[in-house]
Amino acid sequence: MMMQMLDAGGMRTITDDIRKSDINNPYGYFEYEPVKQLSEKNEWLANAYGQAVKIIYLHLYQLPPVHQYKVIFMMRHLDEIVASQDAMLEGLNQKTGEAGSARFTNTIRLQLEKLDRWFESQLNIEILRVRYNDVVNRQTQSISEINKFLGYTLDEADMSKVIDPKLYRQKYLQPCGNVIDR
């Protein structure tokens, strides 16, 4: 969704269109295969100034320190991530399970804690953390923060047009305790 928003807002995006849209992501994935090989082949980054590229959090460590980066880090509740992954696997007729989901959740939590510590030591990376549910539910505020972070170069109205709340299918509902109606 973030890449779609940036693209709609007028930012050039780096994508290869190899991974096509599907039932899980009907608007496409906006991915770029060379990202998976950042540690070996990253010369393309020198020509990426002012453009957006989707990088999965595990590949951020491979960004060469010779460049300055602005990272929009899209955050989502871990239970939603796991539920989304499980739904995607079920759609592909692959097995999911509670034990696997619990391990997956714990693994991601530990990886994200490590990444937060790493971010603190990176002087060449400026980061904006954006909550997925805020982008969907508080579009105006979230889009304004993103546009400010990127130097007010984007069309906020066009960015909001690509946010599709119907695709926010895996929602974490925090328990609120006992509710007594008087």
Would you write up a description of this structure?
The protein is α/β, with parallel strands linked by helices and about 180 residues long. It has a domain of about 120 residues. Helices cover about 35% and strands about 10% of the residues. It is built from six helices and four strands, in the order αβββααβααα. The C terminus is likely disordered.
Radius of gyration: 18 Å
* Major sheet: arrangement of strands: 1-2
Q: Helix/strand-derived class?
A: alpha/beta
- Please tell me the overall pLDDT: 84
Q: Helicity range of the residues?
A: 25-40%
Percent range for β-strand residues: 5-15%
N-to-C SSE string, H for helix and E for strand:
HEEEHHEHHH
Q: Count the strands?
A: 4
**Which shape, going by the Cα principal axes?**
globular
Terminal Cα separation, in Å? Answer: 42 Å
DSSP summary: helix tally: 6
Let me know the largest β-sheet.
2 strands, parallel
List key phrases describing it.
single chain, 182 residues, alpha/beta, two-stranded parallel sheet, 4 strands, 10% strand, disordered C terminus
SSE layout and pairing:
Blueprint lengths: L1 H7 L4 E2 L37 E2 L15 E7 L2 H14 L6 H23 L4 E7 H6 L1 H11 L6 H6 L21
Parallel strand pairs: 1-2, 3-4
Helix pairs in contact: 2-3
What is shown here, in short?
The chain is an alpha/beta fold and 182 residues long. The chain has 6 helices and 4 strands, in the order αβββααβααα. It has a two-stranded parallel sheet with strand order 1-2.
